[in-house]
């Protein structure tokens, strides 16, 4: 396998981990976030500092990156998830930018806007694929668990959910914290993949991309999110030679999907039931 | 005062306001174990606010709510754990989920998992229609079936007290009769019921006792039979035909 193909597969795994994290929050709990790149940044920086400065082994460092994102998400989530609907999206946008600006200006720790070089290239193909498989398996189990159903109940009708005895505020915080962990791990892996991170990599554009992938694949469908990740990652890779126009094509792809399938590629179905439906329609 | 037993639900001096507007101005009511009690009143009397204040959906400004003598929690998810369950106005079922999934959602606060299957069986015997449709999406049910599902879902938490907010809303008269017949059967199964209704006649015919709410105050209370023939009630809420049929009954 050429280095390039390997790189693409690693990138796919990283994007997919971040994607399913956001999918839990946006697709399954109904909370739109425009600041999840900040959790990736937190994971990336925590892991980078731990491995470079304190020479911690990469595995506990990646976990620590995820946990750091979780802790910050918890303290952000408790006060802000009382906000409903679009208001949380606005708050998350502001908080995401705030975290990025802190990373950019806290020179002594993060080395500021010039970026953080010299990270060990610990993200090898087996590491990325392994992390992806484990985290995806966990997520598929989670969304079919009692708490996964609770998330869906909060999304569909939070008043009815609270009347049935769900503590809707806690469930939303739980979803945010888990999704932050996923993004943190994805960020940590990205750092190990590129050996270099920079605050500008985790700006609003990245956050929007994360949410776009989820909407693109279908809100409330994990397999849809995975397909969305593959399509978006490959489209941006495919047009690398005409790099200035990549974002143009990326935007066009989003517009086409939203016009043809406003509910996303899979809608709210998972892959098996989507195929079953296709077969039924044909016969 | 010789109080023979503590009421299951006791509300005293309940006040709720939305900003400057007072919705409840000191409501008191009691519901005893095994009773069906209805609260009737016109639009804006504060009926739904009363229900939402009991369940903790809106915060109360003043007043005391007790369940079997113990103070009722203020947060809705805690209230459910204390054995009070509300069937909300407009049903609020989970349309994209199947009937059986909706019902299991109702059992969320329960910890005794083994009993949930038994209770599913119990609500299916109360509402056989739901068993027939158990794997159907809830959104595809008719209005009456959806109301049955909402009631069954509330029963899945095994409440001591079932609150219903306008169970007849948007349903055909013949379906309303079905729903009310089911409510009586649920009451026979030892579930105490407090309901709020626009359809005053049906509600009073079903209930043991009733309260009349007007602009946030209880203006009248008594046995449902008496209220049905009370001239003030008949004039304001029942129309004349109702009084006649009540006498017949």
In short:
Chain A has 283 residues and is mostly helical. Chain A is 75% helix and 0% strand.
What report would you give on this structure?
The complex is a heterodimer of chains A (283) and B (249). Chain A is mostly helical and 283 residues long. Chain A has 13 helices and no strands. In chain A, α10 crosses α11 (222-238). The mean pLDDT of chain A is 89. In chain B, α7 links the parallel β7 and β8. With 249 residues, chain B is an alpha/beta fold. The mean pLDDT of chain B is 88. Chain B has helices at residues 47-55, 76-81, 99-106, 113-126, 128-132, 143-155, 173-188, 200-206, 224-229, 231-238, 240-248, and strands spanning 9-18, 21-31, 36-40, 62-67, 70-71, 84-87, 161-165, 192-197, 209-214, 217-223. In chain B, the strands form two sheets. A six-stranded mixed β-sheet of chain B has the order 6-7-8-3-9-10, with helices on both faces. At the A-B interface, α7 and α8 of A face α2 and α3 of B.
Supply database-style keywords.
heterodimer, A: 283 residues, mainly alpha, 13 helices, B: 249 residues, alpha/beta, 2 domains, four-stranded antiparallel sheet, 41% helix, 25% strand
Helix-strand layout with pairing:
The complex is a heterodimer of chains A (283) and B (249).
Chain A: H1 3-28, H2 37-53, H3 58-80, H4 86-105, H5 107-110, H6 125-143, H7 146-156, H8 158-163, H9 168-194, H10 204-217, H11 222-238, H12 246-260, H13 271-282
Helix pairs in contact in A: 1-6, 1-7, 1-9, 1-10, 1-11, 2-3, 2-4, 2-9, 3-9, 7-9, 10-11
Chain B: E1 9-18, E2 21-31, E3 36-40, H1 47-55, E4 62-67, E5 70-71, H2 76-81, E6 84-87, H3 99-106, H4 113-126, H5 128-132, H6 143-155, E7 161-165, H7 173-188, E8 192-197, H8 200-206, E9 209-214, E10 217-223, H9 224-229, H10 231-238, H11 240-248
Parallel strand pairs in B: 3-8, 3-9, 6-7, 7-8
Antiparallel strand pairs in B: 1-2, 1-4, 4-5, 9-10
Helix pairs in contact in B: 3-6
């Amino acid at each position: 396998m050429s280095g390039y193909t390997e790189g693409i597969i690693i990138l796919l795994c990283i994007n997919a981990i971040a994607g399913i994290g956001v999918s839990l929050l946006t697709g399954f709990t109904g909370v739109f976030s425009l600041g999840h790149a900040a959790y990736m940044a937190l994971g990336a920086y925590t892991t980078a500092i731990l491995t470079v400065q304190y020479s911690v082994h990469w595995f506990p460092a990646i976990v620590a990156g995820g946990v750091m994102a979780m802790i910050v998400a918890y303290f952000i989530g408790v006060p802000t998830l009382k906000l409903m609907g679009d208001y949380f999206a606005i708050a998350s946008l502001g908080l995401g930018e705030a975290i990025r600006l802190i990373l950019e200006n806290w020179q002594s720790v993060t080395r500021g806007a010039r970026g953080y070089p010299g990270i060990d290239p610990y993200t090898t193909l087996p590491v990325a694929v392994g992390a992806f498989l484990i985290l995806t398996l966990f997520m598929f189990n989670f969304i079919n668990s009692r708490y996964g159903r609770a998330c869906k109940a909060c999304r569909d009708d939070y008043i009815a959910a609270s009347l049935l005895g769900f503590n809707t505020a806690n469930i939303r915080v739980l979803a945010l914290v888990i999704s932050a962990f996923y993004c943190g791990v994805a960020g940590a892996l990205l750092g190990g993949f590129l050996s270099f991170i920079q605050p500008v990599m985790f700006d609003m554009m990245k956050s929007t991309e994360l949410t776009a992938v989820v909407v693109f694949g279908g809100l409330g469908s994990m397999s849809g999110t995975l397909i969305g990740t593959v399509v978006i990652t490959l489209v941006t890779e495919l047009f690398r030679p005409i790099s200035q126009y990549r974002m143009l094509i990326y935007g066009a792809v989003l517009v086409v999907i939203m016009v043809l399938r406003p509910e996303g590629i899979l809608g709210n179905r998972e892959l098996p039931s989507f195929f079953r439906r296709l077969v039924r329609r044909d016969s | 005062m010789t109080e023979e037993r503590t009421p299951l639900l006791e509300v005293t001096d309940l006040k709720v306001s939305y900003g400057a507007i007072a919705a409840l101005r000191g409501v008191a009511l009691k519901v005893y174990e095994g009773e069906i009690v209805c609260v009737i009143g016109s639009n804006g009397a504060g009926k739904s606010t009363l229900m939402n204040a009991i369940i903790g959906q809106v915060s109360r400004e003043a007043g005391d709510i007790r369940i079997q003598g113990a103070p009722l929690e203020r947060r809705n998810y805690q209230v459910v754990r204390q054995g009070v369950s509300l069937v909300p106005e407009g049903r609020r079922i989970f349309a994209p989920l199947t009937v059986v999934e909706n019902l299991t959602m109702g059992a969320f606060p329960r910890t005794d998992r083994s009993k949930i299957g038994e209770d599913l069986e119990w609500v299916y015997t109360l509402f056989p229609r739901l068993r027939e449709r158990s794997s159907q999406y809830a959104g595809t049910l008719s209005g009456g079936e959806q109301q049955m599902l909402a009631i069954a879902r509330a029963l899945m938490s095994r409440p001591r007290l079932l609150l219903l907010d306008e169970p007849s809303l948007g349903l055909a008269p013949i379906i309303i009769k079905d729903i009310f017949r089911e409510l009586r059967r649920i009451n026979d199964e030892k579930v105490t019921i407090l309901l709020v209704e626009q359809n005053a006649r049906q509600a009073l015919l079903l209930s043991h006792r009733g309260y009349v709410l007007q602009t946030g105050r209880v203006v009248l209370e008594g046995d449902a039979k008496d209220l049905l023939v009370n001239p003030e009630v008949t004039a304001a809420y029942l129309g004349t035909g109702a009084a006649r049929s009540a006498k017949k009954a």
